[in-house]
Design brief:
Blueprint lengths: L3 H16 L13 E4 L19 H10 L6 E5 L2 E5 L3 E3 L12 E5 L14 E5 L6 E2 L2 E2 L5 E7 L4 E4 L2 E2 L15 E7 L5 E6 L2 E3 L9 E5 L2 E6 L2 E3 L3 E5 L8 E3 L2 E3 L4 E6 L6 E3 L2 E3 L3 E6 L1 H9 L19 E4 L2 E3 L3 E5 L8 E2 L5 E4 L2 E3 L37
Parallel strand pairs: 1-2, 2-5, 3-6, 4-9, 5-10, 6-11, 9-12, 10-13, 11-14, 12-15, 13-16, 14-17, 15-18, 16-19, 17-20, 18-21, 19-22, 20-23, 21-24, 22-25, 23-26, 24-27, 25-29, 26-30
Antiparallel strand pairs: 7-8, 27-28
């Protein structure tokens, strides 16, 4: 039997061990909420609101190692979250469902009455840039993943994503790139990304592709994309159940949306694409598969010309303004597209105009970086708010 001193020491040792990351077999059930606060948190904490973690990566490790059932929500407080390593979400011992989801969200969301843009958790990517692309040698210079969502039934909501502070093309032929949110497995489904802001600058913090996802059911809605190269890539040919709704793309210098041979049930509506390069990039499913199996850039045997038969999509209640071209076709990171006719797009209640869209620049206003209130573009309803602004 233990004496009193030994019992106290054993209890203390056990409590410390419970807070410290341990092997998979040693982990207990994951709590329903895990809090992350970069200002006051510590990765040895419990993860409760009163004892938050410091990094999102550690929250992901807790989820991956944990047991239990039901929904799990990782809550990020306002502040600057330095993303120094890929946030890999790959739970080993639990399964999420459409009702009981894995959610990564802001503490305060845009429709909350006390929200303003300064309260959005800001994710700035600071990780080293590997010379590989998802584990493969990369002749283009390397790529980093911000979040890797390797589970079905996940939601990301209310966060602001900045790019990676590198020079994207330091030498001819190189394209060093960031993928802010990735999903590589083709057997996954149900990824929701809502009310997020994705910002980039080609000089200081390039954001190459903000969302690139394989599998089915990628639902991107009420998001804002500005100053980056490519907004969303729906990457699996023949996949279904995708949506892009009420999103605002401004000054995207690559492509507003990229579809890789996905099915024609793509629900594209209520979007404003303005002041950019291509509104839509079309890539065939076979070409996309070859691209994904290559080394991060275009394979020599991957087709580059536009496919003879294009899948048709409906563009519903949207607004395309001041884009250089509506549609292009191509493959790979280099954006060496060819212009194609947008006849594969059926415009339903959609306006196409050469007039630019004016943006709200007053940072104190709720619709900062949205189309100017009262403008034709603003009436479409694209932006961060699920409920219309008064």
């Amino acid at each position: 039997m233990l004496n009193r001193r030994q019992a106290v020491q054993a209890a203390f040792t056990g409590a410390v061990a419970a807070l410290r990351p341990g092997p998979l077999s040693a982990q207990a059930a994951v709590p329903a909420e895990i809090w992350v606060n970069p200002a006051v948190g510590a990765d040895a904490n419990s993860g409760a609101k009163a004892s938050p973690l410091r990094t999102l990566a550690e929250a992901a490790r807790r989820v991956n190692r944990g047991t239990g059932e039901g929904a799990v929500t990782i809550v990020l407080t306002e502040g600057i979250h330095a993303i120094g390593e890929t946030t890999l979400l790959r739970p080993e011992r639990r399964t999420f469902t459409r009702a009981d989801r894995l959610t990564i969200r802001a503490e305060v969301l845009p429709d909350d009455p006390d929200w303003h843009t300064g309260r959005m958790p800001t994710l700035i990517h600071t990780m080293p840039l590997p010379k590989t692309w998802n584990g493969r040698p990369d002749p283009l210079g390397g790529a980093a993943d911000g979040m890797m969502i390797e589970t079905s039934h996940a939601t990301i909501q209310g966060l602001k994503f900045l790019g990676l502070p590198v020079v994207e093309t330091p030498k001819p032929g190189l394209i060093q790139r960031l993928y802010a949110i990735s999903r590589l497995r083709r057997d996954l489904e149900d990824l929701e990304i809502a009310q997020c802001v994705f910002l980039g600058d080609d000089l200081t913090n390039p954001n190459h592709v903000t969302i690139i996802a394989n599998g089915n059911g990628v639902n991107v809605h009420h998001c804002s994309f500005r100053g980056l190269k490519i907004s969303v890539v729906y990457w699996t040919g023949g996949s279904s159940g995708h949506a892009m709704k009420n999103c605002f793309c401004d000054g995207v210098y690559g492509s507003g949306v990229w579809t890789a041979g996905i099915k024609d049930d793509f629900d594209f509506r209520g979007n404003v694409f303005a002041n950019g390069n291509y509104a839509w990039t079309y890539q065939g499913g076979a070409s996309a598969l070859a691209d994904a199996g290559g080394r991060g850039g275009r394979r020599a045997d991957a087709p580059t010309n536009a496919p003879r038969e294009l899948i048709h999509y409906k563009v519903i209640d949207s607004y395309f303004a001041n884009n250089r071209r509506i549609a292009g076709s191509g493959t790979g990171a280099r954006l060496d597209y060819q212009d194609i006719e947008p006849s594969f797009l059926e415009m339903v209640g959609t306006k196409v105009t050469a007039e630019p869209v004016a943006i709200e620049r007053d940072q104190t206003k709720r619709h900062y970086l949205h189309p100017i209130a009262g403008s034709e573009a603003a009436k479409v309803g694209a932006g961060l708010f699920l409920k219309p602004l008064a």
